[in-house]
Amino acid sequence: MGGAESTVAVGVARLGRSAGWISCLGDDEFGKYVLNIMQGERVDTSQVKVSSTSPTGVFFRENRVSGPSSVYYYRRNSAFSHMSPSDLDEDYIAGAKILHITGITPGLSTSCRETVIRAIDVARANGVCVVLDPNYRAKVWSAEEARPHLESLMLRADYVLAGQEDFAKLTGMSCEKELLAYLHGLGLTEVILKLGRDGAILSTQDNVEHITGYLVDRPVDRFGVGDSFAVGFLVGLLNNSPLREAIALGNAVAGWSIRLPGNIEALPDWSDLEQFRSDHNFVVR
Length: 285
Known about the structure:
By secondary structure, the chain is α/β, with parallel strands linked by helices. Helices cover 41% and strands 16% of the residues. It has a six-stranded mixed beta sheet with strand order 5-6-7-8-9-10, with helices on both faces. A two-stranded parallel ribbon has the order 1-2. A two-stranded antiparallel ribbon has the order 3-4. Helix 8 (225-238) runs antiparallel to helix 9 (243-257). 40% of the residues are buried. The mean pLDDT is 92.
């Protein structure tokens, strides 16, 4: 079982915080399988709807030891692709501390895009922090279509978790300085740029700081590592950690997860994470 937002919800729950997942599944074997797993991971599924007319979305992963790997999506006309603003419980969003969204959902359909926008509007109106992982997926929508929509969403978010690899596909820019200038140029005052194995950059108007990642000689599974970073970052925010410490925690969760196969299977609990950080002489100054 996988999916960006569901992976993040499970990761947050494993690190001891409460997480709710808003989604729609088909009334089929896959949907029941997904729902059972999410409930077993102590994620609140009260906002998950079940469709009797549309199937659960499916994707296939191709893993390779070397060279690029691929994901093949079969999500068109899935139950989730028909989500609309009317499916949202606005009081549920208003009662949260953080709304986490990704750029995958608005690429699935016009109604999904409208749902994301409405969720952000509700969060902002109620003082809920909005964290966006643009998570651009070329197989979901083209860069030409995605870019203006993702830029608009970025301007509505409190924090944007920008991935260097994703933004190279979205904008054609891969140089760190170019990407930082582009993101600040949009109007973002604090930029978090994920660099994969090299960690992340925290850039403000006055300072650019590189926050070291965790080098893994033999990564086992790269899928979902960006979502693992989001897990650590969100938990850092929930723990009221300074921003750079939240980023460092994101690096640690990502460093742990890349060593193991699977999506949610590779997410740590606190004992795993503390041992991992200890082994790597984790220090935040």
